[in-house]
Batch of 2 targets.
Target 1
Amino acid sequence: QRSDIVVGLVLEPPHMDPTSNAAAAIDEVVYANLFEGLTRFGPDGDILPALAQSWDVSENGLTYTFHLTEGVSFHDGSALTADDVVFSLDRARAEDSVNAQKFLFADIESVEASDDLTVAVTLSQPNGNFPFNMAWGDAVIVAPESAETNATDPVGTGPFRFEDWRQGDSVTLVRNEDYWGEPALLERATFRFISDPTAAFAAMMAEDVDTFPVFPAPETLAQLDADPRFEVVVGTTEGETILAMNNRREPLDNVLVREAIAHAIDRQAVIDGAMFGYGTPIGTHFAPHHPAYIDLTELSAYDPERSQQLLIEAGVSGLRLSLALPPPVYARRGGEIIAAQLRDVGIETEIVNVEWAQWLEQVFGEGDFDLTVISHTEPMDIEIYGREDYYFGYGAPEFVALWDELTRTVEPEARNALLGDLQRNISENFVNAYIFQLAKAGVQNADLEGLWVNAPTQATDLTQVRWTR
Amino acid sequence: MLNFVLRRAVSLAISLLVASVVIFFVLEVLPGDPARFMLGLNASPEALAALRTQLGLDAPVLVRYWSWLAGMASGDFGISYTYRTPAIELIAARLWVSIPLAVYALVLATLIGIPLGVLAATKRNSPIDAGTMGLTQIGIALPNFWFAMLLVLLFSVTLRWFSSGGFPGWDDPGAAMMALTLPAIALALPQAAILARVMRSSLLDTLDEDYVRTAQAKGLTRSQALWRHAFRNALIPVLTIMGLQFSFLLAGAIIIENVFYLPGLGRLAFQAITARDLIVVRSVVMILVFAVIVVTFAVDIAYAAVDPRLRRGTR
Amino acid sequence: MRVGLGVGAVLTAILAAMALLSLFWTPYDVTLIAVGERLLPPGPEHWLGTDHFGRDMVSMILVGAQTSIAVALVAVGLGMAVGVPLGLAAAARAGTAFDDIIMRGNDLVFAFPALIIAILITAVFGPGAINAIIAIGIFNIPVFARLTRGAGMGVWQREFIMAARVAGKGRVLISLEHVLPNIGNMLIVQATIQFSLAILAEAGLAYVGLGAQPPLPSWGRMLAEAQTMISLAPHVALVPGLAIVFSVLGLNLLGDGLRDLFDPRLGKAGR
Amino acid sequence: MSLLELEKLGLTIDGTRILEDVSLEIGAGKVLGLVGESGSGKSLTALSIMRLLPGGANLTGKIGLDGRDLVAAGEGEMNGLRGQAMGMIFQEPMTALNPLMTIGDQVAETVRVHRGLGRSEARGLAAETLERVGLPGAMISPSRYPHELSGGQRQRVGIAMAIALRPKLLIADEPTTALDVTTQAQILDLLAGLVREEGMALMLITHDLAVVSQMADTIAVLHQGRVVEAGPARRLIDAPESPYTRQLVAASTHVPTRVRGAVGEVLLRVEGATRDYRLRSGLSMGSKTTFRALDGVSLTIGRGESVGLVGESGSGKSTLARAILGLEPLDAGRVEFAGRVVERAGRAARLTLRDMQMVFQDPYGSFDPRHRVGRLVAEPLHLLGDKAPKGAEREALVARVLESVGIEASAADRHIHAFSGGQRQRIAIARALVIEPALIVLDEAVSALDVSIRAQVLDLLAAISQRVAISYLFIAHDLQVVRAITDRVLVMEGGRIVEEGATERVLEDPQQDYTRQLVRAAPKLGG
Ligand SMILES: Nc1ncnc2c1ncn2[C@@H]1O[C@H](COP(=O)(O)OP(=O)(O)OP(=O)(O)O)[C@@H](O)[C@H]1O
Ligand SMILES: Nc1ncnc2c1ncn2[C@@H]1O[C@H](COP(=O)(O)OP(=O)(O)OP(=O)(O)O)[C@@H](O)[C@H]1O
Ligand SMILES: [Mg+2]
Ligand SMILES: [Mg+2]
């Protein structure tokens, strides 16, 4: 029986410090394996205790008191204390912090250690999401001695410790024998970086890799599934794939034009053509597996005639728009199909393939775009519609009001109702065209178990993974 | 000779300086901000500003050019934006894959190409000649990424003789060589085809030379005349091509490195460009340019070794 | 090896005919996406089947020929338009500082790793056919400059150049009237070969996503996109690859054949 | 019995008949001269004997060497004979040696192949042989490479390789055509000595009747692949039987009839012309060594005068010619033409070129093969600028000039490759005449031509100077030719003019050592 695993990942992490870079690839290696936070995401997205075995919320919802687990030590042998937590949170929210998700800590007013194992966090306003925020990879707890060197020599508290990084090729982790909790079942894990879809397929077929949690070539999944050596596992992700529209720009500032575009898109054709069927159609910016999700796909059902009519109503003809497509296959292939569908209703698009760096600067940073296809993979991020300066530029007052109400609301029923209203608001205003929820289509050796099916956050949690044979 | 070396050294330095200017300023106009790339969608403006200061991106252009140049002179290429390690270390690690791969491929290409070329030349206008030359044409025409893929399908997926890619490191040299074998074959094929063609036509030229006839008039057999006289003379243009090939194999392997997910220099450059890790891009390109110039120099020296006319002052 | 020339000419003619035909007619519209009909095997409806978007492969290959030819032609044209005059000028002033600067400049361009520079160019200006042309074209400049200079210097050694100088002609006139026509054949041969290399280069760039952009079909991109489907629908992965192989083969055979034809040394012996 | 006997030798290459019924014989210690114009089959006869023929060759008849038939011999047998029993010296000393191998090793190779000697022994023998051909190791080390030797020295190495094993038969294919007269004389001496001392049979191939008449015991004349006449040397030269031989002998001694015209005022004046070439050789670039090709040359040429310029190869003749035409810069001194200083570029240069033209050595190479003859001949009209005739007028002019050199006007529409060597050189003269210059510089204008064609061209030049008052500067290394066509002669050595005077006087009664040497070295027919 094997006690090691080779995991295939598409992107190589730039470095190993999840608190100073947005790259999902970092979390895919280190989250839950090397680094842990006060709380953590469970396989289905529940917020579970981690370094904090429990927490209390004060009456007014402003103070969270975290009770740390006893006997936790970092990989360098030093013990975890409340001071480390204070250090980590203060570092993340500091003025000169380079944390990629500073908003997670925006509400924190102060962090104090009551004793060695107790930390009190005071918020400036009540935030029901705070334990959820603390579960992010960007909020993991690090030690002051190693914080600066985590990028190249990560020291965490997790069930695996860092062994070796062969840059450009692989990262190797080994089991942490002094782990505070249930020890990992595997002794060693190697993450291999294979960006080329063909190479990924070949590596899987040649059994050079045991699992690809997010397989980059969906067209081959059927073939792999038919092979008794492999198992294809399809789960959910937090990735809403949308055709984002620049609401600030003529003529997309006209809701009729946006509605016309939304009706021009045949979601199923995009899912089939780009993802070979893997994906769930969505009608709003919300994950379908979330209890508060409401199905609004009918609002923008595929209806080219209606689309053409709306364009006439809006008084636009001979519309030419640019369509920026970042590298992932959902965007490149999906964009090509969407462009063809838009052409059918008389909207010409000019496809501009861009790299991530360019997309981030031009589309996301400067809002210089007409249309773009993009998957928003952060969990529960409908909040972005409240920001007027966000790249697609919505931020309608009604939406902001609803959002404010939500943050003040703690009661689950009422929260869900409000979330429904938020979904409906953006859907009815056709802010963007909502296409599908990205599926987490992974391939694994048939003898492996314990890998996450869904992806509530981008992680490859190996704690429960083992070989059955 | 000393004079020659000095002159070459000066022109080498000027070339490198011009190259450094071109590289630096082309990268300056590259759209895309490394800080934004690192911090992603939700980055706050302060975090971005903080990171830019940390990376030294807010200094004036000329200052940054100068400090880059000065750093390089002392072997310090700067710290990679993304990997946070010295660029030179990243590059050095990749060179341990790229150089052996290039050498391996070149050796293969030589072992295949030269004998084929000689064979075709000696059997000039025979079916063997036509056959080998036809093969070389196909070797040149095959897109190498496609050929690489077919190799993987056959030898890794179907026959399982080789792993489909990756590089295990040099701790186990046997495994390392195994891992480099398919990529080296994929790289070597078109180069072998080119070498075979150059070897053949060069040998045909020298076989026509008077001194080969002279050698036969002395009583050497055809094949003695070929190996002792024609072959060495024919090697001169072949050497030029091999020099060019080495630099091509060093940098041009990006696509092959992708197909076999090898941690090579080309892929490092490609990733660094995507991530706007300008420090690494600059250093890699600079080092490659340097390598090419050095290889060219080495080829010149090799010429002198083969050709006495270049060894002493006269021509 | 006249057979080679014949085969080369025929293959090249087919390539050109495909590109020309695609200007007027293709069996289907290549911008039409019909996901429902994707990856159909070859059959009476679609002679070479359909690709992953349900587009007709015959049409894709035809229009792809047009893209390949256009990119390669313009890139090689660019290389010649700049490289040949530079080479002529350098040959006319061989041994001077001017010549030195041009040749060192050439060496420098040669010293840059071509593919990485191509990636940089497309990173600066964005991917697309035009930028692929520029990237490929730049590396054709030194090829032609060097060739022109080398051959040109050979012509300058000939006695008829001295005769032209005695007739009072200056460097420019001599370069145009005597040098250029005498190296014309060689330039044509090299252009043919560079042309085939440019087709391969475009395919390589397209493979890493930097060639012609969709919806314009390109052989390289078709090949890249189809790689993972090779066991699913072999035709989509094989057809564009074979198209590239045959075009490059054809052009190379043509170039070599022309070289043999033009080279007076070879006479009947052939080579 | 003779050592070598060719009996009805026939040769076809790819079906084309090259040699037919060639029968020859040479005895030991004898010299057979094989003469004939270019393309008559001399070289292929030699290569047939060595059995080093190109692909597609088919040999018939018999080649008897010491009783063995070489036509029937297998390749292995031939390998044993070549270098051992028979050696061959090739025409081009520049290319006949392997540039990558030391001369000692190249000579030693002959020995090693046949005798299976060790390296050092073979080297010893090689050094001995080199010494025998006048390359003593003390002066010319056997570890030198061919490029480090002069043409004459290289030819000696070639001879050393051929005679290292003292073969019974030596074939020398034009062993001296690439060499200057003085060197030629040395090589011929060497060969004659070998024949005398070693009793070797020598087959000496040349197109130069004067050379064979000095060397050979018997001569065979080859014409279009057939032996038209063979016999003892004296008899054949003095009383040739076949019309072809007669024609050949006549052409070799041909002197054009020309009347000395009146010499007018000074047309060209060269004063203290000095030219230094900067040597940028190979690896030692940057070092500032210079080579003085012209060293204070002064001369004058009068209107209507024909002046000869002689001197061995490399003495600076061509450099001077170029400087006169303004094609080469001078480091010191000046050239004045018709009272005007000759400039190197621009309008002033065109003004002097307007009255000076040049005819070059290589009748083929001096024409752009891509242009038609009409255009080639009209090219100097460029010098007239706007005044140049256009259209029909231009065509008429070209036709007239072509006819004046005996070429039909319709030639204007053809390319240069469609003409024979003699015709080409006449077209070259037409080109020089087209703008009616006052001076024509002819740089080795007849050296590359066969004797009979050379005679025609010399006649033409003489006839032209009869018709119009024209000056010639006639550069040559062949004194015979210079004597025939010039009034006055200048002798150059090492960039200087060492002697000057009326042609007859200088050649009959040279005053300077160098001139004497030159005159002595020049082979004379029947000498
Ligand atoms: N390799 C060959 N193939 C076919 N024909 C040839 C070949 N070599 C020579 N010839 C022809 O054979 C004839 C005789 O050539 P050969 O070289 O013997 O002449 P030659 O008398 O030595 O002339 P030269 O004085 O110019 O050296 C010529 O017409 C030539 O064109
Ligand atoms: N471009 C040059 N650079 C250096 N040396 C040169 C150059 N051209 C000629 N020489 C040298 O100058 C000398 C004179 O050359 P030139 O060509 O004038 O000789 P020549 O008398 O015409 O000889 P030949 O009879 O061989 O034509 C020779 O020693 C030659 O090597
Ligand atoms: Mg001959
Ligand atoms: Mg000369």
Target 2
Amino acid sequence: MHIIESGNVAAATGVKLARAQVIAAYPITPQTPLTEKLSEFVESGALKAEYIPVESEHSAMAVCIAASTAGTRAFTATSANGLLYMVEQLHWAVGARLPIVMCVANRGIGAPWTVWNDQQDTISQRDAGWIQIYANDHQQIIDAVIKAFRLAQTVSIPVMVCYDGYLLSHTYMPFDVPEQSKVDSFLPAFAPTHFLDPENPGNFNTVTLPDIRPGVDGEMAPGYIEIRHNLHQDLRATLDTFVEIDKAFEKEFGRGGNPLVEKYRCDDADFVAVCIGSLSYQLRDVIDIMRENDVKIGVMGVQMYRPFPDKAIVDALRGKKCAIVFEKALSYGNQGALYADIKAALYTSEKKPRIHNYILGLGGREIKTQQLLDALTASCTSPDTFEDTPRWIGLKL
Amino acid sequence: MENQTTILNLTEEEFVHPGNRACSGCGLSIVYRIGLKALGKNTILVVPPSCLTVLQGLYPVASTKLPCVNVTFASTGAAATGVRAAMRALKKENVNVVAWAGDGGTSDIGIQALSGACERGEDIIYICYDNEAYMNTGVQRSGTTPQGVITTTTPIKGKLQEKKDVPSIIAAHGIGYVATASAAYPLDFYDKVRKATTISGPRYIHVHTPCPPGWSFETRYTIKVGKLAVQTGLFDLYEIENGEFRLTGASKNLVGKARLPVTEYFKTQGRFKSLDKDIIKKVQEQVDAKWARY
Amino acid sequence: MTTRTFCNKISRSKPSPGDGGNTGSWRVLRPVINLEACIPAKRNKKACFHCWLYCPDSVVSKTIPPVINYEYCKGCGICAEECPADAISMVDESTHPVEEK
Amino acid sequence: MRKDIIEIRWHGRGGQGAITAAKIVANAAFVSGYKGVVMAPTFGTERRGAPVFTSLKISREKIYDLSPITTPDMVIVLDHSLLDEVNVTAGLKENGLVVLNAPKPVSEYTFDGMRVAVSDVTKHAVEAGLPPGIVNSGIIGAFAKASGLVDIDVLVQAIEDEFSGKKPEKNAKAARIAYENTELKVPK
């Protein structure tokens, strides 16, 4: 059934359909309507879950970590400084291999204070080990939340479902709400083999030595580096696993097919714009205009940013003249993070394109279609003359 | 509270394995061993970084026979909340969810999460073992380090500020049960933990825990030093049950009697070596004034 | 579908004694119980057991007479200090060559 | 930039229900076959009583551009007092439409060559039995009459759905009265 609601409500509805058991959240703009909706679901009985109104984001993730360790499906949501306040916990949740799902309504980071959208918050956490999925519209939000729970418990790694603050979180558009019975068959109950259990006591997240050490049963137990290596290998394998989960989702719900990158008019293109989030949809209109003017251009949205789908991106860019990377975030003092990642991925590839970097929209600065058109036109007109440093769009002073 | 438990009827079952990494003469080892006896098998522990993290064992060996989740330093109260929420969701209601943290993890970095859990009325037991400094990292001052104490971050003059009164702060949340205890009086501590298991909502027990290396005394004096803190009237054993305050055990027996001077306690430990006459006089006056109200 | 086993390495410990190794080797002084003075030994009934109660490392048994597990006893001396009958003396460990293992 | 998108800007005051009104129209438009419907409220620091605006884009095809409206086809003004504070016609396309809740007749208002529709929604809402100051259901009636975009019956159904449990029939009635009492002025 289609409803017209905000992106936050789409996310909350996904969490409800996924039957999250423990939800803890601390309000922060623009995530708040999501947590308000979830508390309403729980209070009204529409969702049988524990809703913990914690005193901080650090504690929100603490509740999720503990509840997940105890064997329940846990969820939280945040934005911007809230995400940064739980950074220690993000890394902890990954190291403990807990299938927590968290929505992040992307927002710029203070100081100075900004409540408006960019993606510096989640991009800054790209190395935490969380899986990061980005949604471009409300349908993708609700679908991603449901897929995220299955992915998280399949690979034992937490998943962030990210969507642009305000642009998606507060904007209303139609989306289909999947049937509960179908979600139930797609998403099996969380049944971990190890959990906090007085009948089978274990000590979780114990201090782990630099070296391997024999265990109680005589078997050699890994040291910290082996455990972290295993996490990394599992994250790399997650790329294929998510493709499979997306296929299973498509079979059940008839939607999907672009789990890692979502391409638009890229196949015959000479130029490909690349970005993360709803901007990739805004760019479609620009691509259409340029196509009308016989510029062979397409746009690719990076849907999963961590683990990084380097192969999918390199394949999509092979033989192109130029990739133009737009970013609402920056690795300060260097370049756009996505730009640097793509550049690194292309390093060993045959027939690699030129690559350009634009920074835009920080702190909610409006991104006008004309500006995108101008930037793309400049890149397509002189692909060989660009510097290896980001150009900024929309600076007024 | 009268002791119900005696040495003779105290359970023999042990929940802490020997051969763990706690220091020789460790006060925490005593309260942990006794506390787990009181909690029993049907318990889940939540532990932030502290000496207990080391006592509990290094991967892949656990020195505790109970399920335990190690959590980040600031998150103990919230993590215990999460375990309890999961128990409700899984309909495993009769499990003790017990946070066990040190004084730094409680009075300093963890107080926000603990306060939040108390305000929400979470059904958890929180035990703070107070060895009055960051012992695990090498004896740095904490909020509960008493005034004048030499630590590695107050190395010459001793700590300038007074000890933070954490049990009173927690009691101000209006929770059903707050108690203090001492490693030197394990049966009193045992009974308080037992009582806590029979109450629901947030329960807080603050247990004074002598530390031979951190306080600079010989390992064999752990009990003696702990008892002196009580007998001089510096650290009081009490309960606040449903808002009602009462002294218990050894402290209750002190009412109306002559107490040992605080210097008897101070002189047993190297950490007090920088105390000057003025501070000693002030502390004695504070103790006398406090006891005049009991 | 993927057949990979995910998350096969994680820090999750199992209970066992001796995480710190043979902590008996930490001792400088060894507690030795004089059974002539030990209250439960002398009376041959369950009594006293201060050594058992106060032992931080649960290496004293609540038996008649109490027995100390020297494999793990760290030699702190609390039992000797708290024994109301002064039945436990702390003796130089070097006078007790490695006899039990 | 897409020609197929109809852009409607709603001007109100914080708490007046402009978002709800736009949402109702969005729902009705979707039901009427507009696959592309995007409604975006003012982002950020709305405060009760302060002027706010809401963007509504409608198209037969899916809409990908979520940026705020800058060149609306029509503007809906929930409160004529806003005219003194806000340039409601900013960016309004040539031959655009202004739908205004105001007590005076349409002849009193001129917006520089734009079409103007006026209804005394505040009065009609009270006639419908609503407490004074509820204007967001009534303005939808004026919008329906003036724009002709969405059928009034579909809108009334959307109003009843939205106000389910909150005087749906009175809100619906307010919309119908306003619909019947909307004057349109088309400049020569």
